[in-house]
Amino acid sequence: MRIIVTGGGTGGHIYPALAIAKGILARNPNSEILYVGTKEGMEARLVPEEGIDFRGVSGQGLPRRLSLETLKVGAKSFKALWETKQIFKTYKPDLVVGTGGYVSGPVVLTAALFGIPTLLHEQNALPGITNKTLARFVRKVMVTFPESIAHFGVRKKLVLTGLPVRPEIGTISRAQGAKRMGLQPEQLTLLVTGGSRGARSINQAMPAVLKKLLDYPEVQVIWATGKATYDETIKALSESGIMWQRKNWKILEYLKDVPEALACSDLFIGRAGATTLAEIMVAGKPGVLIPYPFAAENHQEYNARALEKDGAGRVILDAELTGDTLWQMIQGLLAKPEELEKMANAALKLGQPNALEKIVNICLETAWK
Length: 369
Fold this sequence. Notes:
The protein is of the alpha/beta class. 44% of the residues lie in helices and 15% in strands.
């Protein structure tokens, strides 16, 4: 069986596509997987590193305003359609799966027009323009959040699957996680992160929070500042006179042990990307969510509001984030452990630990045999 997966532009589209590809190969090792992405996108580097065959096509996101650049992008899209057609002629796929981003457009559309079975996966509560347009042409649309269903006009095609997360999430014990992080398993722990590169607004708010936490020695902190802002964050802490090198505070440039950190934490503080939220839901962790304000179509706020609506999170908009607003939110939750537990249960209820299994089942049921 030959399968093409496609998705690009951001890690939010690429990593789910890779997870689906690996899930299919694990279930059916005789399958052949080809990843089709843009020649200049992140996927051109990331996919081959994972040992999956990659073919690049032309492509570029549409500018927000109509201009000469819009015409150039349109020309690239037509070129991508022709390039995709040539790939299909030689590869002859039994299934095409798209996870969004502008590269999904020409690949999924061409597959549908050729009569090849096609599927989409939508990661965010607010679907992107590409997936909303393509939904009318594909066999099924798999979604992460129930809230996204209302934004599609083809409800009969929609299936709530969740978003694949790494298998370690939710399976590591609190004691194991604490041991890995060098912390005490019985103490309340905050996990703060803005992603691999970091979130400057969160990092700028955290020193004020740490000052307050000096009066709460029983509270532990895992704070990943991100590589891009680590030096300036450490400098700001030193200038503020905070002795940040403490046994119960782990202030890191990069957090590689995410499953362990989640396992031993009681409250997540960070951005609201779909993958991040899928992980905290499966791990059953409440969140103070600070959506990235420049995400396409403001989709992170929609993601965060979905958790807030179901009682699993609280939202602070980036424009309203200060050390004081963040501390007030944290302090209010620390003072009400029963509320934290209630939010944790709500998050766990929303989690989809079997998301990858569901998605692979749909892929294998839909493909030509």
